[in-house]
Structure to design on (198 residues):
């Protein structure tokens, strides 16, 4: 009995030892990013895209924070508010993509005004950056940094939510979707479905 138990333990330890030297083939479970990237062709993917998603009947009224510069006028269509900063790499990287989507959406008859809003600490920082980077997005800056966190909370986010942040406001000035994080090419169909009300 003791010898048999000894052999089982030795065999078991041998298997564990041999497994420790080999690479695992186990793949991690899907992250939020992988889940969103899986399929962006249907509106039913919006809950994975938006941290805050509200139907027209229960959506909150959109209000701008106090801006250093003119407050954008409400248009007849959707408004896409993108929060960015000069020190935010993902924010800068996604700007050309968003601008290309603006043209593509317009060609498809989607009425959306894209408003880039800087959360840089000073107007001087923003002006200096724009002087060196012609591709930097135009738009106002949040005037008081202390107002950013309460404004994010009013949108339904945690006060420490990281930029870039995208706020999609419908033609009735209701906040329909708030996304934390950069957008990428596969997100186009999801954004299109949201703005077309599909």
């Amino acid at each position: 009995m003791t010898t048999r138990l000894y052999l089982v333990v030795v065999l078991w330890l041998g298997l564990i030892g041999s497994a420790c030297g080999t690479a695992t083939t186990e793949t991690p479970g899907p992250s939020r990013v992988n889940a969103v990237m899986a399929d962006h062709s249907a509106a039913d993917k919006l809950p994975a895209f938006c941290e805050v998603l509200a139907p027209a009947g229960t959506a909150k009224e959109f209000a701008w924070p106090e801006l250093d510069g003119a407050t954008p006028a409400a248009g007849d269509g959707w408004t896409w508010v993108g929060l960015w900063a000069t020190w935010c790499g993902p924010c800068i990287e996604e700007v050309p993509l968003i601008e290309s989507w603006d043209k593509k959406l317009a060609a498809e008859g989607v009425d959306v005004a894209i408003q880039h809003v800087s959360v840089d600490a000073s107007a001087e920082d923003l002006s200096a950056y724009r002087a060196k980077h012609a591709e930097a997005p135009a738009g106002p800056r949040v005037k008081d940094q202390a107002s950013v966190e309460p404004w994010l909370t009013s949108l339904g986010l945690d006060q420490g939510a990281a930029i870039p942040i995208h706020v999609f406001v419908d033609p009735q000035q209701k906040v329909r979707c708030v996304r934390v994080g950069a957008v990428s090419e596969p997100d186009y169909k999801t954004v299109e479905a949201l703005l077309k009300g599909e």
Observations:
- Residues 3 and 107 are 79 Å apart (CA to CA).
- The chain has one domain: 40-196.
